[in-house]
Amino acid sequence: MKQVKQFLFVVVSMVLLVSPLQQAHAAEALTVQEAMKEYDGTKVTVEGYIVGVPTSVYHVEQSNFSSNYALALADDPNETQQSDMIYIKLDSQYRSEYGLQNNPDNMGDFIEVSGERDDYFSHDGVEYVTSIQTKQDNGGNGNDGGDTSGSYYDSASGLTGSSLKTELHTIIDDHTELSYDDVWGALRVTDQDPYNSSNVLLLYTGRSQSKYENGGNIDDWNREHVWAKSHGDFGTTMGAGTDIHHLRPTDSTVNSSRGNKDFDNGGSAQGEAAGTYADADSWEPRDEVKGDVARMVFYMAVRYEGGSGEPDLEVANYTGTSGSQLGKLSTLKQWHEQDPVSTFEERRNDIIFSDYQGNRNPFIDHPEYVEQIW
């Protein structure tokens, strides 16, 4: 009997010693890299950015999500290496709020997860989740639409005017160039309807339409050059002509109506695109995408500065422009303020950066750059 009591005393002592350690792990949030080093069965709380949906030990979907069953977290919001991610198994109570198939706008959010360290898909993971919270990271970002691009813009810090414009050009200049045929497939991903993964959203009409109803027929969608390709004479050549930061799906006849008009307020209602107006030399899109249009135009004016045989694009403060200019600057600045950056734009920017071109639109990440340059 004495031996049994001694045994029980040792067991209870061990429990009392282990339990506080496990509680400390649960209370103190770990980075993804720290959590991956914990032993299986350890209760952990881990913080990280949502970077996709794991479907196997070797694959994480970072767009066009196919399920709500798991998340991949990383310390870097732009992480693409599975070896630097931890997989989070989502039980049924968390799927409706955090699953990326239903909530693609959650991509890039900074969250805190508590659960048990255990492999998932034979990869470092967390299962038996007890809580998930969306929160802000130490930089003040999170589910508040901030810049998730890490140190991407460090060299532009403190600059203004032409110096800032020049430095931003240097940052975003060299990127992967797509063929014009590749643009079809890219837009099916970048402009996917968040509520219907089979469709894309059309820029000027807002219509949700099948990804594969594309072409030149009436009511097909086609590839709109927001910076009209005749304003710089770049056509559909690789580079400016295929840069998906300014290419968007649009109704083919609405695209034809826009033509190569500058952007400004006023005119007559455009029949197919509600809230859109046009006159002889200007085009006013619906309120919901005015800021999107402005930020795409500003991107093009910074990205294409005439080097390496590329066009030198500039934003002019009038309509009826010609050559490599596009207007109207004062109106575009107004639209930029009127229609702030949306989660759709942020997601699109992230996908273009991680999956296609490897560069970003600075005016989505840092809206303040517009006023600092122009």
Automatic annotation (TrEMBL):
Gene Ontology MF annotations: endonuclease activity
Keyword Signal: yes
Database matches in Pfam families: DUF6359, Endonuclease_1
Signal peptide interval: 1-26
Keyword field: Endonuclease, Hydrolase, Nuclease, Signal
Entry-linked InterPro entries: Endonuclease-I, His-Me_finger_sf, YhcR_N
Ranges of compositional bias, category Gly residues: 139-148
UniProt keyword Hydrolase, yes or no: yes
SUPFAM superfamilies registered for this protein in UniProt: His-Me finger endonucleases
Endonuclease YhcR N-terminal domain ranges (all copies): 30-133
Annotated spans, Disordered: 132-154, 240-283
Protein's recorded name: Endonuclease
Organism: Pontibacillus salicampi
